[in-house]
Amino acid sequence: MLHQLDIFGGEPIPHSEKKSAREKKEKPVQAPASAPTPALNTVEAKNTLEEPTTTAYTGAAFIDVPDDEALYSKMYYPISDVANMFHVNISLIRFWEKEFDILKPRKNRKGDRLFRPEDVKNLKLIYFLLKEKRYTIEGAKSFLKKGKKVNEQFETIELLKNIKSMLLELKAGLA
Questions:
Q1: What average pLDDT does the structure give for the chain?
Q2: Are 149 and 119 in contact (CB under 8 A)?
Q3: Domain 60-146 sits in CATH 1.10.1660.10
Q4: Which residues contact 119 (CB under 8 A, 6 or more apart)?
Q5: ∠ Cα 114 141 97 (to 5°)
Q6: What is the largest distance, in Å, between two alpha-carbon atoms of the chain?
Q7: How would you classify residue 147: left for phi > 0, otherwise alpha for psi between -120 and 50, otherwise beta?
Q8: Could you report the per-residue pLDDT of 62-81, keeping only the tens digit for each?
Q9: Which of 41, 17, 16, 44 lies closest to 30 in space, CA to CA?
Q10: Burial of 113 per CB tally in 10 Å (0-12, 13-18, 19+)
Q11: pTM attached to this predicted model
């Protein structure tokens, strides 16, 4: 009879005692006849008993762009700082710079990109369109060509997000 080699010093397990992959799967829990809910397997049932998670990825929750006062405290931001603000790769920021005409970072003699606060705000708008609204590159370009109306909509959405986060903080403080 073949035995499994245990490299950690335990007793070897004969192959006949090992369970097959089908036997390892947990069988679904049968719901009582009086309950109208569908049967859940034990993993799903275990997860439903835990506290419900209400955190959905919105993208904006993970952006660390400072408010206007702190943003305008510096004249220039290096590309690494900007990429860290948006939690994206530096190459993505460079790609967006090539694709969108509204991004015009300064470059020093060495060729390093230095973003002004206006560029960071434009990047925030581009991030919103591409990552949150799920626009294509071409769709975002055409949306940005509309001009003033776009900025008003974006500012309104940002204001509403700030109000929402403030209300969520108040709710957490009450609990």
A1: 75
A2: no
A3: yes
A4: 82, 103, 104, 105
A5: 20
A6: 79
A7: left
A8: 788 888 899 999 999 999 99
A9: 41
A10: buried
A11: 0.57
What 3 state SS string does the chain have? CCEECCCCCCCCEEHHHCCCHHHHCCCCCCCCCCCCCCCCCHHHHHHHHCCCCCCCCCCHHHCCCCCHHHHCCCCCEEHHHHHHHHCCCHHHHHHHHHHCCCCCCEECCCCCEEECHHHHHHHHHHHHHHHHCCCCHHHHHHHHHCCHHHHHHHHHHHHHHHHHHHHHHHHHHHC
The whole-angstrom distance between residue 69's C-alpha and the CA centroid of its chain comes to 25
Q: Which is more confidently placed, 52 or 68? A: 68
Residue 72 CA, distance from chain mean position: 26
Tokens of 25: 């799967």
Which of 19, 15, 37 lies closest to 28, judged by CA? 37
Q: What are the sequence ranges of the domains in the chain?
A: 60-146
- Chain length of the chain: 175
What are 73's two structure tokens?
């405290």
pLDDT digits over 130-171, tens only? 998 899 999 999 988 887 666 777 788 888 888 998 999 999
Amino acid at 53: T
Contact 84, 92 (CB under 8 A): no
Among all chains, which residue has been given the structure tokens 């929750």? 61
